[in-house]
Design a protein that fits this description.
Shape: globular
Number of strands: 6
Radius of gyration: 23 Å
Distance between the termini: 69 Å
Order of helices and strands: HHEEEHEHEEHH
Strand order of the largest sheet: 4-3-2-1-5-6
Helix content: 40-55%
Largest sheet: 6 strands, antiparallel
Strand content: 15-25%
């Protein structure tokens, strides 16, 4: 009987060691396309953009849209609003005959970014707004690939719904849109559709910023992002055709 406490202590230490090893493996394990860790589970859709923002937001929104020239007709767009870093936007446009109606086989992919945070240029504690300089780069984009991107863009936006979107004082808001359809997500976590959607938008930005010699590689990255998101949506939402 005198050996029972020692055995019990040995078992407890062994269990603690196994738990610690399991936590280390979970922490170090890469995040796959599947959501398997409860820490990363979040909303798997976009939430609606508020149509009537508070007064303090209207000044910011107006300046944001003016600096980024967001009144232009566009086919699809991703607007990114970090809490502290500069805002930026990528959009697919057709400057001549409207949405996908030009006989040309190219469209315009445009990326614009401020040199500082627009929100803090307004809310700077001074009587005068700070100056923000926006740089813009535009490149031609193949229409065939543009149509594939537009299809997945529509599919994600048509799944926009209320509930559970969250939000916070810090973080980043990603707003996606086509003409007259808007949805957003705040700092998504894990390998769910909003994160994959952001990666697709980032691949469009990479295409704009790439040089001519590496544009084929950038195009393949867009196709890869498309396939990953398509595969995810087909598996988890097979009945959602759009």
């Amino acid at each position: 009987m005198k050996h029972i406490p020692s055995i019990a202590l040995f078992l407890l230490l062994s269990i603690d060691l196994l738990i610690a090893q399991g936590e280390t493996k979970l922490k170090d394990a890469p995040i796959s396309d599947e959501v398997s860790d409860a820490r990363f589970v979040g909303v798997d859709y976009l939430t609606p953009v508020k149509p009537y923002p508070a007064e303090y937001r209207r000044v910011y929104d107006n300046k944001l849209r003016r600096l980024f020239k967001m009144e232009k007709v566009f086919e699809l767009r991703m607007l990114v609003r970090p809490s502290f870093k500069p805002e930026y936007v990528v959009s697919l446009e057709n400057e001549e005959e409207g949405i996908f109606q030009s006989p040309k086989d190219k469209m315009i992919l445009r990326f614009s970014k401020g040199d500082k945070n627009i929100w803090y240029s307004i809310n700077n504690g001074e009587s005068k707004e700070g100056l923000v300089t926006v740089t813009t780069k535009s490149v031609e984009f193949p229409k065939i690939l543009a149509k594939r991107v537009k299809t997945i863009w529509d599919r994600m936006l048509y799944r926009t719904r209320y509930g559970g979107g969250g939000g916070g004082l810090d973080g980043t808001v990603y707003e996606f849109s086509t003409w007259c359809i808007y949805g957003e997500v705040w700092s998504p976590r894990g390998r769910q559709s909003p994160t994959l959607f952001i990666e697709l938008g980032d691949s469009l930005i990479a295409y704009v910023e790439s040089d001519v010699k590496s544009r084929d590689v950038a195009e393949k990255e867009i196709e890869k992002s498309l396939l990953v998101l398509e595969k995810y949506l087909n598996k988890h939402y097979p009945d959602a055709t759009k």
